[in-house]
Give the backbone structure.
Amino acid sequence: MHNDPKGRGNMATKLGLWGIVIIIAAIVSIASIVGTFAYMQMSTRQKLVVATTTSLYDTGLLDEVETAFEAKYTIDIYFISVGSGIAIQFAQRGDADMLLVHAPSEELKFLQGNYGVNRKIFAYNFFEIVGPTDDPANIEGLSPIDALSRIVAAGRNSTAVWVSRGDGSGTHVKEKELWAQAGFNWTLIRDEVNWFKETGSGMGKTLITANGLKAYTLTDIGTFLAYSVGTTNQVPNLETLVAQGSELINVYSAIAVNVTANPKANFEAATAFTKFVLSEEGQQIIGNYGIATYGQSLFYPAVELLKSNTNPTIVQMIKDYAYFNDDSTRTECPTQYRYGHPELYD
Amino acid sequence: MNLGSKHIPIFFFLLFLVGAIIILVLVPEFQEGVIGAFTLIASGNPEVVEITLRSIYISGTATALAVVWSVPVGLFVGLKDFFGKRFFKGLFNALIGIPTVTLGLVLYLMFSSTGPFGSLNLFLSPLGVALGQAILIAPIMVSFTASAVEAVEPDIKDLARTLGASEVEAAFAVLKESTAGVSLAIVGSFNRAIAELGIALMIGQNIRGQTRVLTTTIAMETTQGEIALSIALAIILLAVVLSINLFINLLQRRFK
């Protein structure tokens, strides 16, 4: 081959080594990208991107809802399981078609920003304050507000520690509201780092941290059960201390992304999914979820409750906490934030 | 030491083995994880098989895309002398350390439907994750390839040129001599891609049946409190990486 290098390498020499290499690289890249796109176009099913709070997804509830929904509709659900804060970001940027969230104050801002329409409350449950089994701040059975006051006092005496999510999630929003109701300025006490520890991470990691520090924390019931019940109790140092009190109510709602603000949003699919979650079948899945594993429901269906006022005490709690003002009345979704589909609010 | 340097690897292997046994004895979750891993593999759980295959597919695509661009760049950097070569090499060495979460976030802003590449629908797609991983591992491949080439370059290239080879033939001669180093670059890059979490989570968002891979599943199961399952999946991930490494090793011996 070395007898006639010029002749053999003629074309190669003209293009140069790097020319050939770049051509090959371009061909391979284009082929693989075009191939993948062609493959992706083959699917005829619609795509519905749902940004959801972690507590709904991580408990496994939404997997069950998804299976039942996809069997009925030609829509594939893509769940993005993130904290309520970033979920709203995704919807604002047009990367999600709808939201499942549990932070009413943030939801109102989202509606007011014209990002979302047709808010519907579909489930509720209660937060819990969990803490070390020996309960150094002596809060067991107290009201949430009194409990927090005692934890602050004990914390300042170095006998108790509080662990906070600190991540802008719905649970964190709730915690800040509770501190305000108890008369504390969250932005000030978070600096008392000797007893106030922020994890900045999800509920599971926060529970593990609280368990390790033998500390108090606010948790949703689903994540706490997932960690404390089962083959191994991963938070043996923690137990539920305060679970009563209207302040602990936790309300989940669905919001469709405003299609006039985000023309790419799949509004009809979002409406179909909202209706499914509100339907008898959807509400039954929600109410029964967790009984087989934990012996109790993790979420309670809200549709029939709100419609027929079957439990006035809880209905009043939900209305006080998660309804918004609309002229002189209170409603789950003020009329100016409704778009089409009046049957949702019959 | 009298035993000689050829025994050092065996010492390290024994050390690793003893460490593994100590962890196994001390941490009960780890025992469950090991048992769980074997049960999952033996039962052929379809979801675990699917997730494992998707991991290999996505990171394999990422490695292929990175190879066609980065190995030539590495060759170029290793073979040629050009202005700013040292700066260029330093830059690629530094880029190896980019945090995957940051790269994931930047790519999300690019792929987001309001971002510059929004119309390509790469967010939440396996191809988007593969592209992100390809960008992540490119600096590793460039740096390792350049070093491998530089290690053999002077003599082989000069020899080939003296014997009358064209520049193209000389470059291929160098590449052939540095096969071991270049394949280490490729295998190492694949390992980095399949074991990373930040990009898969940020671009893929762990969507069941679409972008759920081994690392995102491990993160999710940990959040849900399924510690033993997480460890089982981690063991599967290690087994995948180990078997691919062994396979490449065998291939290299066969064609040496």
